[in-house]
Amino acid sequence: MRELTDFTPFCETASAFWRVNVLPADERVILVEAMSQDLRVTLRNLTVANALRRIEPARLVVYSGADEDWNQIVWTYFNLEEIRQMAMAYGAEVVFDAHELVDHRVQGTAEELLVAGVDLGGELPDSGIPPEVFDQIVYATACRMARVARLDQTPEHQAKREQVAARSHEFARIYDALFERNDVVALVSSHVDYNNFGLAVEAALRYSVPVLFPQSTGGLKAYALFPEKLPTGKPIRAGLTDQIGEFFEEHIWPHRELLHRSTELTTWRAKATLGRPSWWRPGRNYSNVDLRGAVDRAEVRTYAARRTGLDADRPVIIVFNHAVSDALGTNVEAFPDLGAWFERTTDIAAERDDVSWLFLDHPNQALYDGSDFFARVAAGHADRRHMGFMPSMDLSKNFLTALADLVVTVRGSVSTEYPALGIPAIQAGWSEWSACGFTVVADSPEQYAEILGAHIDGLLRGDVLITPDQVQRARLWTWFYRAASDVPSGLVQHWQLGEDDALFELLTTHMLHVESDGDPVFAAVRRMWRRRDPFLTRLDWTLGREELEDTLAPVGPI
Amino acid sequence: MSFQLPSLHLGTEFDEPTHALALPGSVSRGNHPALVLLDGASRAPKRLSRVVRRTALLALKIDRPTGPIRVSVALMLDAISTEVWRHISRVEPEEMPDETGRHRLVEVSIQGLPRAVLLLGSRPGADRDSTKQRVSAHLQPEEIGESGLLAVDFKLPDHLPAWAREGLLEEPVAGVCVNRVLVEPLAGHVAPSLSTSVAPQRRWHPVPTGPGFFVVNPGSALGPVRVQLRAAGPKTRPGVLDRVISRFHRVRGRDVSSASKYVELEVQPVAGGASRRAVLQLGEHATCDLALEPGELPAYLRILDSPAWAPTERSGWTARVHEAQA
Lengths: 558, 326
What we know:
The complex is a heterodimer of chains A (558) and B (326).
Chain A: H1 7-19, E1 29-34, H2 39-53, E2 59-64, H3 68-73, H4 80-89, E3 92-97, H5 98-107, E4 114-115, E5 118-119, H6 131-146, H7 155-180, E6 184-188, H8 194-206, E7 211-214, E8 222-225, H9 238-252, H10 260-271, H11 294-308, E9 316-320, H12 338-351, E10 356-361, H13 365-368, H14 373-379, E11 387-391, H15 397-403, E12 406-409, H16 414-417, E13 425-427, E14 440-441, H17 445-461, H18 468-484, H19 501-513, H20 520-531, H21 545-552
Parallel strand pairs in A: 1-2, 1-6, 2-3, 6-7, 9-10, 9-12, 10-11, 12-13, 13-14
Antiparallel strand pairs in A: 4-5, 7-8
Helix pairs in contact in A: 1-4, 1-19, 2-4, 2-20, 5-7, 6-7, 6-8, 7-8, 10-18, 11-15
Chain B: E1 25-27, E2 35-39, E3 41-43, E4 49-51, E5 56-61, E6 69-77, H1 79-89, E7 103-110, E8 113-121, E9 131-139, E10 149-155, H2 162-165, E11 177-185, E12 193-195, E13 205-208, E14 213-217, E15 225-231, H3 240-251, H4 256-259, E16 262-269, E17 276-281, E18 287-292, E19 299-305, E20 314-323
Antiparallel strand pairs in B: 1-11, 2-5, 3-4, 4-11, 5-10, 6-9, 6-11, 7-8, 7-10, 12-14, 13-20, 14-19, 15-18, 15-20, 16-17, 16-19
């Protein structure tokens, strides 16, 4: 539990700052989610919302809270009063505890609660959400709360599903009511998954309200879901994947020569665990990739092989298990769930003993799985000497890089990291980068088995399975993700700063002593909003070559 | 022959050239350019490295030697060792196991071959205290490959007799500080060595009672080595206390003064296999010798039956080792 002494003075400063930096509110509403215990998350949501209020006059309506499940399973220090204090300082008209309201509504004890002109404690009509979408959100939430890869017919799981369904009905009702009875400009939400976040996002898109989706990383990174640009009948993130791929192809890839030095620098920094690496690997030097080339790799590979017990004279395929109950069904996936993908892959591996397989469990699996999923799958293949099962953190990035000849994931960031080092990656589902052309993506179990088999055959033949162009694409994505779609802003500071007094001191200083018009976040949000871009960008990518160079300021003579 | 991935592209334009360590040379800081790769360990700001996982490997880039080399590795425990160990070995519920009076065993391999086992006792006294152990190994020049990498790795030995597990810390390698790696051309041999967890005094290693055993490491010995045990100096002749104990026991029909002239030892090869026991008679200066065959080394050596007058803080024994023909 952290203690903040500079938080209240910061809120006083923020209150004065935002009063003069946004348009006066009109009748319209911007809905802001504040359901994370981490104040950096709410800070990002509120900052994006207020950047929007500079161009779209609106009232801020903030929903927050955490239920017993979230407090038991995810949060350790959720503090509604802190969140409320911050939201009010950022100009919120009202902050309400949506979780508590839902609990009361389920129990039939809800009292009048007027939010944005709607009595959320009173009678509310059913949501218009399509039943299959509702069921999917309920199922994914129940899996997460039960910490399982999938629900079975046990009374325990069914009870969890019913409890989640009852709460989800009420979440859907209150979110629908807010969108139905208000002119909502935008929804700002840190997550798009699960009932508490996802049902608001679903309602927003159904009511043609854009969703801005700040990320818990970097400076200020945010995606945007504009309803008119999303395909129908696909998961929420699918449209984003397509749009990112198109943007990358149209605006980033053509500038690869201009960006060459930058991409090399970012790749070098990524190897040294600088910037924000994969969120599950600590930012310490024991996570570095120190390997330089094939000679080093071949030698270190013998030690890594000994550690894992695998035969490294043959190709080694590393399969990175996911946090099995994490955000199920929010993008296109080849398999019904993450567990099914992992199980099927181990079955394929059992048959393909002409290569070595290393299955790694997710470092934070304990937060997502209480059913020993990984251990149970591993036990089923204990007699297969060509298959190894280990916790991911028992091997350094050096050892992993020395061993990996092919990496397999559904949507994991390993499918950006390894292609950037010339190691091919297969994805059994879509991710933010899966349309950027440096991984091979499977859309069905059959296609997955076919792709995997073809890659194994290719490895055994000594084929090149990832081209130099694809390696460059992966490196360019790394740069784009960390530099071009990450807006440095004194109004949020960098994520790595943490959320203690140092953050609030810096925010206070920035608000007091830096003229606000210069903050890049305002231009970035304005550009994204006006152009309906899928993400915030640090610069305007429609500029001509010369103007782009002036903005990027690459190292080199003019 | 390891599988080679044709598409591999590890380098970037910003990779800095590596600097191989010239021999003789020593590396004792984490930012030394010759420390080129880590697994399970971090670079230490004022030492060489800190083990932060259950096992670790450090790779140094060295000038490829033209003759045999001696590689010496110095390990240490300090207050940070305890912090890291607690972090790694934390289990739910978050009750911290106590490390007081418990020992660690670290197998040191070089170029993938086990060379020695070091016994590290828990840190005595206040937090600033530390405990250090070091070991040297003899490498042939052809053991250093084309890459010039010298790989030193640390793990818990695979085979441990039950008595070596008593009091052994969970995850004993986590938190260990690697103080220094010294690489030097070797003219002669690397002498066999002991690891008792206590620093030697004039080549004699005090043997603490805590772990109840110590480790004999072979160095470059090809023949047998001789371990010499000596009862502690002031106790080489029965004193007043011993006479009292003897008299007390004699009443009960046991002649302790006679029993204390013998010591029973157990030898367990680190590589596993059968152990053996030996009963040795204390000779002149209260010493006895035990020969260990090369196939037994490195070995755990346990003193089964100490004389009754042995004090409790130290076992009352000191030990040293040398090659049998020396």
